[in-house]
Structure formats: structure tokens, C-alpha cells
Specification:
By secondary structure, this protein is mainly α. It is built from seven helices and no strands.
Length: about 170
């Protein structure tokens, strides 16, 4: 009987976390959609890049949809565990199964299209490098964006270096 209670509490805790993650994903998707116009305005200035990144224009909607499904899953799992409702738990596990199958299919598709994706990313990398050489310092939007990006990368790399140094101090002593 105690084991059942512990499992019930764990199910509620984990599904509450899943629900909150889903809500956070929906909020991020909404924020992406709000700022999408500004990003697309910047990308429209680059003729070579914007056509290749067109599928990313719907990333906000994708985040909202995925977040809603995750939040729904968390809700079903949490309420199903609290109320011990078999119908809710069955729907929860069916959705988990569907998500697992979709992940396996996505992994296979990613492996099949890996060379094409690498070519696309290489082309984008070359176009971005070309546009930086041509527009950096001349276009305020691009200059500010790259300065902020490089500053962020610098801060992240310093943080990672410090964390690695702190974690590995025992190895060098």
C-alpha cells in the first residue's frame, strides 16, 4: 500500500513538472511569435538567407502546439494519478506512446536527411559569413546583433570555463 502511495506522489510531482514545462514552452512560443516580425524584417535584408530560413518562420506556432500537447499530457497524468482515473491515465499513456513513435520516426528522418541538412547549414554559414564581411559596421542592426551575440558567447564560454575549472580542481591538485 505504501508503494502505491509513493508512486502516486511521484507521478503527481513529475507530471506537475511536465505541465509547467508545457506552459513555459507555450509562453516561449508566444514570445517568439511576438518578436517574429522584427526577426523576419532583419532576415528580409539578406536575399540568400531568408528563403532558406522560411520554415523557421512558423517556429513560434510549433512551440505553442508542442507546449500545449506537453501541458495537456502533464495535466492528464497529474489528474489521472491524483484521482486514480483510469481513463485519464490511459489517454496519458497513449499520448506518451504516440510521442515515442514520433520521436523514433523523427530520428530516422534526421539520419536520412543528414547530408542534405549539412549542405544547407554549410550554405547558410557561408552566406552569413559573407553578409558579416559586407554589412558589419555599415548596418547598425547587424552590427548590434553580432556584437550582442559575441558578447553572449564570450560570457557563456567564461562561465563554462570557470565551472569546468571548479569541477576539475581536485584532478589537478
Amino acid at each position: 500500500m505504501a508503494c502505491k502511495g509513493i508512486l502516486k506522489i511521484l507521478m503527481v510531482i513529475f507530471n506537475s513538472a511536465i505541465f509547467l514545462a508545457g506552459v513555459a514552452t507555450v509562453i516561449i512560443g508566444v514570445l517568439v511569435e511576438i518578436s517574429r516580425r522584427h526577426v523576419l524584417g532583419v532576415l528580409d535584408k539578406f536575399k540568400d538567407i531568408s528563403a532558406e530560413l522560411a520554415p523557421l518562420a512558423n517556429a513560434g506556432y510549433l512551440l505553442i502546439a508542442v507546449g500545449a500537447v506537453i501541458a495537456f499530457m502533464g495535466f492528464l497524468g497529474c489528474c489521472g494519478a491524483c484521482c486514480e482515473n483510469k481513463c485519464m491515465l490511459m489517454i496519458f499513456f497513449i499520448i506518451i506512446l504516440i510521442v515515442f513513435v514520433v520521436e523514433v520516426v523523427a530520428a530516422v528522418v534526421a539520419l536520412l536527411y543528414q547530408p542534405k541538412a549539412e549542405k544547407l547549414l554549410d550554405k547558410i554559414r557561408q552566406n552569413v559569413a559573407k553578409s558579416i564581411r559586407e554589412n558589419y559596421g555599415q548596418n547598425d542592426i547587424i552590427t548590434i546583433a553580432w556584437n550582442e551575440t559575441m558578447s553572449l558567447v564570450h560570457h557563456i564560454s567564461l562561465f563554462c570555463f570557470r565551472m569546468e575549472h571548479l569541477c576539475c580542481m581536485d584532478e589537478f591538485d
